[in-house]
UniProtKB/TrEMBL annotation:
Pfam families: HTH_11 (PF08279), WCX (PF25583), WYL (PF13280). It comes from the Bacteria. It comes from Paenibacillus residui. This is Helix-turn-helix transcriptional regulator. Residues 2-57 form the HTH deoR-type domain. Keywords: DNA-binding, Transcription, Transcription regulation.
Amino acid sequence: MRADRLISILLLLQNYGRLTTKELADRLEVSERTIHRDMEALSTAGIPVFAERGANGGWALSEGYRTQLTGMKTEEMQSLLLAHSSSLLRDLGLGSVFEDAFQKLLASFPVRLREDAELVRRRIHVDGAGWHPSDESLAALPTVQEAVWQEKKLNFEYQREEDAVERTVEPLGLVAKSSIWYLVAAVEGELRTYRVSRMKRARMLEEFFERPDSFDLAAWWEQSTRQFRERLPQYPTRLRLSAQALSRASRQRYMKLLHTGPEVNGWIEAEVEFHTLDSACEILLAYGPLVKVLEPAELRDSLLSQAQGIVLLYSEENTEES
């Protein structure tokens, strides 16, 4: 394990030039003290690694030093085979390019690794698309992508729920969540997220912008996603569910099981969280007699009212037919 970590440190420093102790510790998921011990081990082994102090300091390798320890393990090769999504690469216009590059990579492998690669490709296929066809319009994606690459400002019309607005932004990066593309951009010093399918008449401007050196797209997206989830509305309820309904509820979107009690006569009491009263009604109506609301009273009343409305609707139809 330590030998693998030392090789990883060498490759990271070789690829990124300079990294702080904290950055290395975060990437390798170890403590900063462990990184210091590893650096001592590398130095003792004759590797020209050194530390620079100051605001822009960190660990680095002496200029011109290159390690040849780049042999790829079977597991690393398999991760490359499975990590890409062909549909997302096609969206970016890189599908055929990726395949050509991957074939060159395979050709460089030893015979045993090529055989392992063929076994993986025959036995595992990753399909990142959902069951329902996406109606996302990606007409703006090539222009957005080009603006991100060239670090030029981007102008577009953005369709919000209530109206359309014009925006000029500094495009910092693209994020694909399932089959949906988002642009992360800076607007007057603040970071914003835009859904690419809602962009109209996108055009790249001639004006360049300065990309922040400290901006980490993956880290920012993770933090933004976590904050978004925390801001979602919460509607707590207490339900009595049949065993069949509980199994179904555990897979239900927008319905979070917080706590379940023991089964008594085929029923289980559970604390369940929805987003809103309306969404709770919509979801629970589909369960029919398999779920009974214990709390809150307003949810019970709303379900009862809607159920009575359904009964009345069909009663009127039967009366008209007779």
